[in-house]
Amino acid sequence: MATSLLTLLDDVASILDDVAAMTKIATRKTAGVLGDDLALNAQQVTGVRADRELPVVWEVAKGSAFNKVILVPVALIISVIAPWLITPLLMLGGLYLCFEGVEKLSHKFLHPEEAAEEHKKLLEAITDKEADLVAIEKDKIKGAIRTDFVLSAEIIVIALGTVGAAAFSVQVATLIAISAIMTIGVYGLVAGIVKLDDAGLHLTQPADGSTPNAFSATLGKGILWFAPVLMKFLSVVGTAAMFIVGGGILTHGVHALSETIQSAASGISGLPVFADIKGFGTLAEQLTTTLLNSAVGVAAGIAALAIFTLFQRVRGAKTAH
After folding, report:
1. Where in the chain are the domains?
2. CA 82, CA 153: separation in Å to the nearest integer?
3. In principle, which of 11, 67, 184, 200 could form an S-S bond with 223, CB 3.0–4.6 Å?
4. pLDDT band at residue 10 under the 50/70/90 scheme
């Protein structure tokens, strides 16, 4: 009995070692998506009243966890019964990200008056303590959870590809570990980012009414200056990430297109102006790949928006008729 127990413990320890190793590898491979996920979600949950920021982040985090509860078993099942289906489904999600990015930009630049009016109404609602912001919050939460679903799917597929040759139990444990790490990591950072301005205000105006020392006051003012700059930066990065991630998913799904982009990136990195400087060749190759993937994402998003708009008009015409 004792021998059996020790054997079982040894097996469990061995599995945990494998899971830890696989999780470490998978985490490295998904780190890029984590950065995009962070930028996108920090952008999505901004624009709510200060006292509602953390509750909104918490709701999105719960939605993200639920996304992964759905995605992990679905990914494992599909990888067993229909592995060929993973890429088309992932490409569909990538196309949605590109569509969402183009729709956002078109609304901002092609309908500036409407966008400005919506922004004005949002600011008025945020500053009005009597206003009911439930509807605004629900829209933001739903949008963030939809975006998270696509990014979570990519993270899980990348992680699954890393542990594809491992035992099924190791695959399951690794995907669960990655899901937990990504959810806690992303939304912990998002919570910290959206409360930066509160931290700066606390340093400049302590809750007990005392006068802050010079260091605290200077640090607080610096944070108050930095917070809106960071949010504007994340807004730009978040939109760009839609095209980078979405376009990257689409190009990887089309082998010929992926090879063409890789060949172009390799050619540019081999140019003397880059190759002769240590490290610049790799940087040029990565930057070229990112720009070309983004271009594909923008083109796909424009096409998707055009088709969606045409469909809406045709349906509206039929309804009116």
Report:
1. 2-201
2. 16
3. 200
4. very low
Alpha carbon separation from 321 to 105, 309, 312 (Å, rounded): 32, 18, 14
**DSSP H stretches of helix in 111-210:** 112-127, 134-162, 168-194, 196-204
The pTM of the full predicted model, rounded to 2 decimals, is: 0.70
| Token duo for residue 264 | 């172009």
Q: Which amino acid is at 48?
A: V
Identify the burial level of 254 via C-beta atoms within 10 angstroms of its C-beta, where 0-12 means exposed, 13-18 middle and 19 or more buried. Answer: middle
Furthest-apart CA atoms within the chain: distance in Å: 80
**Token digits of residue 77:** 């099942």
Q: What percentage of the chain exceeds 70 in pLDDT?
A: 69
- Range 116-130 average pLDDT: 55
Distances (CA, A) of 282 to 9, 267, 271: 45, 11, 11
251: buried, middle or exposed (CB in 10 Å: 19+, 13-18, 0-12)?
Answer: buried
Q: State the pLDDT confidence band at 19, using cuts at 50, 70 and 90.
A: very low
* C-alpha to C-alpha distance for 4 and 98, rounded to whole angstroms: 55
| Chain centroid to CA 42 | 9
The C-alpha atoms of residue 52 and residue 63 are separated, in whole angstroms, by 17
Q: Would you say 75 and 86 are in contact if contact means Cβ atoms under 8 Å apart?
A: yes
Task: Give the C-alpha separation, 303 to 109, whole Å.
Answer: 17
Q: Quick one: which of 202, 191, 192 has its CA closest to 224?
A: 202
Q: pLDDT digits over 223-278, tens only?
A: 888 877 877 777 777 778 888 888 988 998 888 898 999 888 888 877 776 666 66
Which band of pLDDT confidence, cut at 50, 70 and 90, is reported for residue 83?
confident
